[in-house]
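Hey, I was hoping to borrow your eyes for a little while. I've been staring at a protein lately and its backbone has me curious. You're getting the sequence in one-letter code plus the fold written as tokens. Would you mind checking whether the tokens look sensible for this chain? Here's the protein in full, and shout if anything looks odd to you:
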Amino acid sequence: MKKLNKRITLIVFIALVSFVFPINAQQNTGTEKGLKPKEQSIVTIAASAAKGEQAILKTALVNGLNAGLTVNEAKEILVHVYAYAGFPRSLNALNTLMVLLEERKKGGITDAIGKEAKPLVTDKTKLQYGTELQTKLLGQPAKGPIYEFAPAIDQFLKEHLFADIFSRDIFDFKTRELITISTLASLGGAEIQLNSHVKVGIYNGITENELNTMADILKTKIGIAESNSLKTITQTIYKSKVTNEMKTKVEQNPFTLVYEGAITENVIGKVNIHPVTYKLNGIDIVANVYTPANYDPAKKCPAVVVAHPNGGIKEQTAGLYAQYLAEAGYITIAADAAFQGGSGGAPRHTDKPFYRIEDIRGMADFITQYAGVDDNRLGVFGICGGGGYTLKAAQSDKRFKAVATLSMFNSGEVRRNGFQNSQLATIQERLKKASDARAQEAAGGEIIYAGVASIEDEEIAKTPTDLYREGYEYYYRTYKHPNSTFLYTMSSLYDLMTWDATTNMDLINQPLLMMAGSKADTKYMTDQAFDKATNAKTKELFVIEGGTHIQTYWKPEYVNKAVDKLTEFFWKNL
């Protein structure tokens, strides 16, 4: 390499720089496991060095050396810190390390020296080589008006920070970003650069879980403000990432379907989708009708009504099952409930049993008039809360010749008693809230909502039950749709808490199939309802081995088992 006689004595200029680049690039190969002890020590060492907290640094160095950090690696962390926190902090930290090593040596502790950074050998100039490394680290060339405003800063960054420091082979890019992020978070006032380097870190393999672990370490070792700075930036980045992915998925599908394998166009000889609208009790209902590959409107074939889960819409799991059943030869319909999704009705997100049951009957009204449907061979299939409402609809509506549910959720029981009877002590209190909410609505006041409008990743991770933790992930992350929400009007509890899906189960005299995952924490609801179906013509409880409640919505190994069983059941009974 050609040596340049430039003496660079100030590197705090890095605080001026902000990078923009793709954070979901293929280079990110990190797992969702937390930081290893050695990596945890690196975070504390860098943070305390940047902060100038020598006592904390000394303890962190001891922990790091005991966890396998070599002397040269410890030196390298503190040398790297100087590029962001300045020479004084770096020199003071190196002095702390030097004194500590002498103390350990006198105490009979021999620390591994480790490998030294190999000298850089290249025919390229430092500017050329630094530019290459910077581009590799970011995933794309660094651009911005600040480089045009101050070209010298661009040159120093490339020639010194990247060609001199990042090129040293003791650490990989991921480790250097652990150091950089910890340093910037501890400095304060460098949020723009911290935001950029968190993205750089993600691109180079640092996971969301690892970033949250870093924030927890900062909270314990450095301070709450420093921790919150990193945590807030991490949450914002990932929320934006999920939102963009969701928008992409919705925008890429002309029918806004978000489930895997969804129809993207109608092709002759394959299952087709037909968006439809109709009136139900004066409310505009939007629905999708799926027709099988051999669909001929002049011929008659069986049909199945599909009721979506609580919080769900027709573009999610209800659509997935409707499409699969159409592939098996049925004409199917999945509609958004009144007041929810794309359907009309106000107040929005009203979730009352009367309307949810009417939604199912309304789908039956529409599909039995659809060309090619044999109205004497009509089945109904409900998922989650839609399963509970399906049971109630089938008790009185004998147009349904076969009844099936998946992961049935008794909305009335849960809203009344709490999930797994966890809110028995607050029933009267919650009824009072529902009554007050209704009174406020009647007076023309603001609509009060219950449920969850949005949730942070940390809250999701801490949610103890599979149903809600995986449900948040499904509805607010992996299969998010702008029309889907966990919200419902507080006044809906007025009706929900006095209702129960399993009353009058003896009125079901049709063939009945109830399915639930063996690991579903909601399975007790299916068991209770199944036992009460004493007059069903035939009944079967089909347990999907290994599946949880939410996994039966999307996971192929469980969905396929459910579809196979549904196909067998409906062909036998329709």
